[in-house]
Amino acid sequence: MKKNLGIRLLFILSIIFLLTSCNKRSKGNSSLTGWSEKDIRAAGFSKNGNYKAEKAPPGMILVEGGSFTMGHVQDDVLFDWNTTPTKIQIRSFYLDETEVTNAEYLFYLDWVERVFPPTEENYKHIYTSALPDTLVWRNTLGANELLTENYLRHPAYADYPVVGVSWLQANQYCKWRTDVVNEKILIQKGVLKNLYRDPEKQVEGKNRFDADAYSESPTLLYEGDESIYRKGLKEVKPRVKGEARPEKGSFTGRHVKISDGIMLPDFRLPTEAEWEYASKAEIEGREYNNTRGRKKYAWEGKYTRNKNRKFQGDQLANFKQGKGDYSGIAGWSNDGADISIKVKSYPPNAFGLYDMSGNVAEWVQDVYRPIIDNDANDFNYFRGNIFNKRLINEEGKVVVVDYNNIKYDTLENGKIIPKELPGSIRYVPITNSDAFMRNNYEKAYNKDAKDGELASTKFYNKDADQVDPKQARMYNSPILPKEVGESGFIQQEYDKEIRNTLISDQARVFKGGSWQDREYWLDPAQRRFLPEYMSASYIGFRCAMDKLGPMTHKRRKPYNINL
């Protein structure tokens, strides 16, 4: 009996050993080549085996992706029908916990003023192009001069959301934030000198850091001065016999690569779909794989007052209560704010995001169109793509924007902005040959795709060179009756006069209600638009960033844990 039991036990252990041997990967060895990590490094190849997971960027919250119905509004009192319900999937992404505040934006302005001094003729328009329009507070029949002079810079408003920032300016802020956050990461890693504390090399002009240029080639920065990079990341190279030892303090390692997982992706404005998904936060109404009911606001319930016993009756957002009522009666304020208010003054939504309804409306990335129809992509929907590529010169090198010959653009409102910041890589739209025989895109410019380009007009069957551009414009060809001949016959034909419309490829969406909006606009699905070069006293913004890797770190691990 005992002998049989021992034989069975030995048999089971043998099977377990065989299965483990077949599935188990040798520790430290490549499963496809047999090279160990030690051998790979010794041969001079780099391999990042220490990457664990992406950490949330500073000031941001992870918004786990999922499917939801975009454009599902509770009310449509304006009857503009621009919120067609469409079910789409959103990828996981990071979003700022709050709107960008005056204090944070002032740091950006101070940096621009220091790196591109407006006293220098070549840089004089860069700083002024970044300044918010403080005159948005003015009203012809209102006494608001105090706000025009103090709202941006006075410490009393430091934690208030910045306003008067156009869509173009908000995008420039996101680009700058990408640079300074990654610069700080490299300084902390010890692979980049802190030039802000270096009395010999001040961060000005050519001494600025650009994350995109660094990722392309670090020699594009600092005029090729590698002493700024210290020793770089430690790299084990095979020693060559007779090779001279490097000088003390020289660059002996290697630069940071994308494969190291050290640098963060680009900051950007959230897409309209992302913003609406994050604002609705339907996860609090989830029951297994379904959601209960329809959310009207960023919080649960159909009322704007708090149901919690401790804060019962308090408003859950900062918005206009009625005509001439922005805060309530003195002594018992409805929302505690006549204009905007400090961020985090109201409870967050289920994702942990503050002021997704009320306080200030927010810019999103999308170009505005009246409807989001069934042709829209149901995966991470976004309108506004222009597919670009890096410009390569005749020598086969990437072109960097010159510091000595900056090109500027004059906007419709007369403001002058740099087309590109000096030191950044120059991009150009892809060509037809780049998109040749691709089945996912056909051209670079896609802002007007399926709603505004030639294919979506009555001239869809003609080539572009056969049509007068003035006649092929969307929203610009009303049908008018025309009397033909003496018989009185009335014929319908398209009007040939040039007419204007507020909707264009420069019209950008902004979402959410604000301190001067009625309750109707607090619905996250409501949408409005404004030209990208304009700003308002009730529009701010917050930044987003793509989530790399899995949607969440909580589940979906490989079944074979050894893989």
* Beta-strand residue percentage: 5-15%
State the CATH class of the largest domain.
Alpha Beta
Low-pLDDT stretches: 22-26
In total, how many domains does the architecture comprise? 3
Report the biggest beta sheet as strand number plus sense, adding barrel if it closes: 4 strands, mixed
- Structural class comes to alpha+beta
Shape category = globular
Q: What strand order characterises the main sheet? A: 17-16-9-18
Indicate the CATH architecture of the largest domain.
Alpha-Beta Complex
Topology:
Layout (H helix, E strand, L loop, with lengths): L1 H22 L13 H6 L17 E4 L2 E5 L15 E5 L2 E4 L5 H14 L8 H7 L14 H6 L16 H22 L22 H6 L55 H9 L5 E2 L2 E2 L36 E2 L2 E2 L27 E7 L20 E3 L17 E3 L5 E3 L8 E3 L49 E6 L4 E6 L12 E5 L15 E5 L7 E2 L3 E3 L17
Parallel strand pairs: 9-18
Antiparallel strand pairs: 1-4, 2-3, 4-19, 5-6, 7-8, 9-16, 10-13, 11-12, 14-15, 16-17
Describe this protein's structure:
It is a single chain. By secondary structure, this protein is α+β, with helices and mostly antiparallel strands. The chain folds into three domains: 58-178 and 265-376 and 505-554, paralog of FGE (formylglycine-generating enzyme) (Alpha-Beta Complex), CATH 3.90.1580.10; 190-261, no CATH class; 385-445, no CATH class. It has helices at residues 2-23, 37-42, 102-115, 124-130, 145-150, 167-188, 211-216, 272-280, and strands at residues 60-63, 66-70, 86-90, 93-96, 286-287, 290-291, 328-329, 332-333, 361-367, 388-390, 408-410, 416-418, 427-429, 479-484, 489-494, 507-511, 527-531, 539-540, 544-546. Strand 14 (479-484) and strand 15 (489-494) form a beta hairpin. The radius of gyration is 29 Å and the shape is globular. The model is unreliable at 22-26 (pLDDT under 50).
